[in-house]
Amino acid sequence: MNRAVQSIKTPFRFFTRLHLTELTGLKAASLVELARLIREVPGSSIYHHTHRFLQQHLYLSPEPPNDFAYWTTGVLGEERLGEILASIDTMQFKDIRSLREKISETLEDYVNAHPKVSLKFADPGEEFHFMKSVSFVLPTSHSAASLEDFTDILGKITIDSIYYHIFEARLRLEKPTNDFSLWLEQSCGRPELANEIGRLDPYTRTMEGLRKALLDILRKGIAK
């Protein structure tokens, strides 16, 4: 089948990432301590505790639980606070700083509204231990010189590569959007595809579900 291959300015180079989890040595036994330390820990720790489940279970849950919500509910028994923390929409934040601020403000507001919770402490051994995610970015052998090539490669690259270009590029590297949308708009001249992909909420899909959604958008774009 003949396909009209659209010329592009710059080929898309696919990268992937490996990650390690490290202890920070910091721990919280109360909501007051948790709120204070959230303001102090490195951004890689905030990222870890809001993306840990997604990184470790890439094929399973489309909605990764928030470690802060899990701990406040499961250890301190503050179910309402857990619900509030779990409802924070990570997609609404462009960088770790603003996400950190939202989580810390949520905790502080809750403590101010319910002063007695500041007297609650986790039992020894059940404190919240802050960890951080350390990423190593590696180039792959894949490079796309056309929208058709890009779509073909996207169908076979690892989900670690998709994860890097969708999640880490936007939130940890503080790009205005994900790498795929940036390339589609700036190098391919396809802003409609860039916007459609940019509107996807990757937190509501499994990684394979996200791959399928991306491919559906791209294939429809090529057909047009």
Radius of gyration, in Å, reads: 20 Å
Strand order of the largest sheet: 1-2
Query: What is the count of structural domains?
Result: 2
Q: Strand-residue fraction?
A: 15-25%
Largest β sheet strand count, sense and barrel closure: 2 strands, antiparallel
Please give the number of β-strands: 2
What is the residue-averaged pLDDT? Answer: 89
Gross geometry: elongated
Task: For the record, give the distance between the C-alpha atoms at the N and C termini, rounded to a whole number.
Answer: 15 Å
Number of DSSP helical runs: 10
Give unreliable regions as ranges. Answer: 1-5
Short précis:
The chain has 224 residues and is of the alpha+beta class. 50% of the residues lie in helices and 15% in strands. Strands 1-2 form a two-stranded antiparallel sheet.
How is the secondary structure organized here?
Blueprint: E1 12-28, H1 31-40, H2 43-56, H3 67-74, H4 79-86, H5 96-113, E2 128-144, H6 147-154, H7 159-172, H8 179-186, H9 191-198, H10 207-223
Can you offer a commentary on this structure?
By secondary structure, this protein is of the alpha+beta class. It folds into two domains: 19-132, no CATH class; 148-223, no CATH class. It is 50% helix and 15% strand. It has ten helices and two strands; from the N terminus they run βαααααβααααα. A two-stranded antiparallel ribbon has the order 1-2. α2 (43-56) packs across α5. The longest helix has 18 residues, at 96-113. The chain is elongated, with a radius of gyration of 20 Å.
